[in-house]
Design a protein that fits this description.
This protein is 74% helix and 0% strand. The protein is mainly alpha-helical and 338 residues long. It has a single domain, classed as Mitochondrial carrier fold (Alpha/alpha barrel). The relative contact order is 0.17. Its main location: membrane. It holds the Pfam family Mito_carr. Belongs to the mitochondrial carrier (TC 2.A.29) family.
Length: 338
């Protein structure tokens, strides 16, 4: 998830550098017109809209990711996207594709708000620090320095948002993974049941894997989006902002998911440890879980569910960036704090 296209950054001499500065200044001026509340609202709504649109694919991804926990090898070989989708419709009904979507929205509203807002703040702090250290203003920042600032800002934003909202993410996973037997009846029932049966730390199972994954995930996602959007607008300023946001967001989603999917799979499985009174499967921490999955399911096991994940992130990340940019533009015109 990400944010604006600010960052200017072309190596080379005179005319090229002047051209970059010319295109960047209006963007920075536009950003200064967006207040904190508007930015938080835009980020939260963008995340909720995106997740609701892609909820069926998100649920399929989770079901594929956790299959290896309680399935034998023959069952795993028979698994397919179409077969699992058909099973959901026949056994649980079409609405089951959105099972757990309420808690997804409850999680995504604060998560997206915090991650978008934190990214902008961390990026601004990094730019100001670089300016103090080097004496070069933000318009003169070179490509590598700008990319590092966006990578660091995205990683820190992801860690900040994930740490604050993690219990809701765990509840979302458990609700989505339920099939015919309903053990958790809703958000509050799940929170109470997990706290009572597994202790308060049960709400943070898999947090280590989550932080290891979400930092790189948002670092890659924000930096790819921000860099690609800045370059695109520099080369083709007449193109539709909606098209640019959709395309660059989709690209950033593919890049970040490819790199961090194995950690996301481990996080999902650790979140389901002990769910519904089942026996624990993984007892050796993050890296031990990796080894256990690879030994039992092979290298393919840590990428189980990557296909529906790709189907999901291409529209999902594109939608979240497009919605964020559009809402921010609309809210900037009515923001009383500007």
């Amino acid at each position: 998830m990400q944010t604006e296209a600010t960052v200017g950054v072309v190596e080379g001499g005179g005319p090229a550098r002047k051209l970059v500065a010319h295109h960047q200044r209006p963007v920075q001026h536009q950003q200064s017109q967006v207040g904190t509340v508007s930015q938080l609202i835009a980020g939260g709504v963008a995340g909720a809209v995106s997740k609701t649109c892609t909820a069926p694919l998100a649920r399929l991804t989770i079901l594929f990711q956790v299959q290896g926990m309680h399935s034998d090898a023959s069952t795993l070989r028979k698994a397919s996207l179409w077969r699992e989708a058909s099973r959901i419709v026949s056994e649980e009904g079409f609405r089951a594709f959105w099972k757990g979507n309420l808690v997804t929205i409850a999680h995504r509203l604060p998560y997206s708000s915090i991650s978008f807002y934190a990214f902008e703040r961390y990026k601004n702090v990094g730019t100001n620090l670089l300016q103090l250290i080097t004496g070069v203003d933000s318009h003169g920042t070179n490509i590598s320095a700008g990319l590092f600032i966006r990578l660091a800002g995205g990683g820190l934003a992801g860690i900040t948002a994930a740490s604050v909202t993690y219990p809701l993410d765990l509840v979302r996973t458990r609700l989505s993974a339920q099939r015919n037997v309903i053990y958790y009846r809703g958000i509050w029932h799940a929170l109470r049941t997990i706290s009572r049966e597994e202790g308060i730390f049960g709400l943070y199972k898999g947090l280590g894997a989550c932080l290891l994954g979400v930092g790189p995930n948002l670092a890659i996602s924000f930096s790819v989006y921000d860099t690609a959007r800045s370059y695109w607008q520099l080369q083709r300023p007449e193109d539709s902002a909606v098209l640019v946001s959709l395309a660059c967001g989709s690209l950033s989603g593919i890049a970040s998911s490819t790199v961090t999917f194995p950690l996301d799979l481990v996080r999902r499985r650790m979140q389901l440890e002990g769910a519904g009174g089942r026996a624990r499967v993984y007892k050796t921490g993050i890296f031990g879980t990796f080894g256990q999955i690879i030994r039992a399911e092979g290298i393919r096991g840590i990428y189980r569910g990557i296909l529906p994940e790709y189907y999901k992130v291409v529209p999902s990340i594109g939608i979240v960036f497009m919605t964020y940019e559009k809402l921010k533009q609309v809210l900037s015109n009515i923001d009383p704090c500007r």
